[in-house]
Write a structure and sequence with these properties.
Blueprint: E1 2-8, H1 14-23, E2 28-32, H2 38-43, H3 45-62, H4 79-103, E3 107-110, E4 112-116, E5 120-124, E6 130-140, E7 144-146, E8 159-160, H5 162-165, E9 174-178, H6 182-194, E10 197-201, H7 213-225, E11 229-231, E12 235-240, E13 246-252, E14 255-261, E15 263-266, E16 270-272, H8 279-282, E17 286-287, E18 290-291, E19 304-306, H9 317-331, E20 346-348, E21 353-358, H10 361-366, E22 371-377, H11 382-387, E23 393-399, E24 405-412, H12 420-427, H13 432-437, H14 447-456
Parallel strand pairs: 1-2, 1-6, 2-3, 6-19, 8-15, 9-10, 9-15, 10-11
Antiparallel strand pairs: 4-5, 5-6, 7-16, 12-13, 13-14, 17-18, 20-21, 21-24, 22-23, 23-24
Helix pairs in contact: 1-9, 3-4, 3-6
Length: 463
């Protein structure tokens, strides 16, 4: 079979790329070895949000009296039903991608794809049969998986990655989470909300280490308040799984400490899926686990492209989608501008949520900017107080000379739905004064953005 474009992988990079290519008039096929939607829809972004929603509702029920409500009888959870709901949501979303493939007349090839010479893709089917397909353009979007460290080998039962964390057969009484990035803290929050005793071990001085330091400190206070134990400047040197549970030997500034738990979740990052897909044979250049591409995602071998977690840049679903759209639009001959990786929003969906874009205060200072910083706490927000979610704040950073919006950092309820304002404003090169003159609706959480900007310019009203 001959196609205009073949895409390897059907995650949010791959399937979005395939759809946009079809819209542009290309004949498209997509190769997928598991379920449509990839990790994001099946084992990542979507099912984790379903778990976190169950945790949020459970927390609301436990605190119903805070809202003047009375629940008769004991409030409890069915852990297996919570897990099953998450799987049902994932399955539904995967079927949605199947519908989109059909709607856009995209051929689905089920099997393991490998790029070959002469713009060929070799696909090994489930029954072992091998088929070959050719295309004018081949786009690699094979994503990533949980990174496995030598001192933290995953057995899938006592030492697990994020996939197992979503489908544990029973709730652990004690859980150790190694790593405090988005994956680690989201699972820590979920299991803690369900009643598990959770300890986070983080190598860096602050949890969620990529975030602004003020955000990190507020988040650590919130997690500790909810009962999660946190060990920073610490590393798990080895684990022992010979007993009933798992023992983690943790190196700290004060010496070694031994933690015991039923399960240890390794959330120390991801590993790109670039092995055994034909890169070496074709001579496609890689560096440190990533496929090297130009600003339009062309590899060093003409006709072969790569997007998403397999290329340098933020390993985020929305980044992969944007890269894929840009890639095929360039192939189609449209005028496109390279992606601005300095204006990519990052979101963490624990409670409280975290959302950020642009430079942290520390990075802005290191870059030599003279800055204006404004903060507005949700404790001064009428909507947040009424909703019972006064924890957190919005922090904004501006260049004092030209008014450029350098960074925006939020922590609180629903902030992942608010960060897009800052992303769009930065894209449009909006200044702080323009944000102040854009009327924000009252009462809303989004008012905190305007108030934080006002604070940066000495015009804040509600502080």
């Amino acid at each position: 079979m001959k196609y205009d474009i073949i895409v390897l992988g059907s995650g949010p990079g791959g399937y979005v790329t395939a759809i946009r290519a079809s819209q542009l008039g290309f004949k498209v096929a997509i190769v997928e070895k598991e379920n449509l939607g990839g990790i994001c829809l099946n084992w990542g972004c979507i099912p984790t949000k379903a778990l976190l929603k169950s945790a949020q509702v459970f927390d609301y029920l436990k605190h119903a009296s805070d809202y003047g409500l009375t629940i008769t009888g004991e409030v409890d959870k069915d852990f297996n039903a919570v897990i099953q709901r998450s799987r049902n949501v994932a399955e539904s979303m995967s079927k949605g991608v199947q519908f989109l493939m059909s709607k856009n007349k995209i051929d689905i090839i089920n099997g393991f794809g490998k790029v070959k010479a002469n713009k060929t893709v070799e696909v090994t089917l489930a029954d072992g049969k091998v088929e070959n397909y050719t295309a004018d353009h081949i786009i690699i979007a094979t994503g990533a998986r949980s990174r496995e460290l030598p001192n933290l080998p995953q057995d899938g039962k006592k030492v697990i990655g994020y996939r197992q964390a979503m489908t544990l057969p029973e709730q652990p009484k004690k859980l150790i989470v190694v790593g405090s990035g988005a994956i680690g803290v989201e699972f820590a929050h979920f299991y803690n909300s369900m009643g598990t005793d959770v300890t986070i071990v983080e190598f860096m001085p602050n949890i969620v280490p990529v975030e602004d330091e003020d955000i990190s400190k507020q988040f650590e206070r919130s997690l500790k308040k909810s009962g999660i134990k946190i060990m920073t400047n610490s590393s798990v040197e080895k684990v022992d799984t010979t007993g009933e549970g798992v023992k983690a030997y943790v190196k700290t500034a004060k010496g070694e400490e031994v933690l015991e738990a039923d399960v240890l979740l390794s959330a120390v990052g991801i590993k790109s899926n670039i092995e055994n897909i034909g890169l070496e044979e074709l001579g496609i250049a890689t560096d440190r686990d990533k496929i090297l591409v130009d600003k339009y995602y062309q590899t060093n071998v003409p006709g072969y492209y790569a997007i998403g977690d397999v290329v340098p840049g933020q390993a985020l679903a929305h980044v992969a989608s944007a890269e894929g759209i840009l890639c095929v639009e360039k192939i189609a001959g449209l005028h496109v501008e390279p992606l601005d990786y300095g204006n990519i929003p990052g979101c963490t969906y624990a409670t409280p949520e975290i959302a950020s874009v642009g430079l942290t205060e520390k990075k802005a200072v290191e870059a030599g900017y003279d800055i204006k910083v404004g903060k507005f706490p949700f404790s001064a927000s009428g909507k947040a107080k009424a909703a019972g979610t006064p924890d957190g704040f919005v922090k904004v950073i501006f260049d004092a000379k030209y008014g450029e919006w350098l960074g925006c950092h939020m922590i609180g309820a629903g902030v992942t739905d608010m960060i897009a304002e800052a992303v769009v404003a930065r894209k449009l090169e909006t200044t702080g004064h323009e944000i102040l003159k854009a009327v924000h609706p009252h009462p809303t959480m989004s008012e905190a953005v305007m108030e934080a900007v006002a604070a940066a310019y000495g015009e804040v009203i509600h502080l």
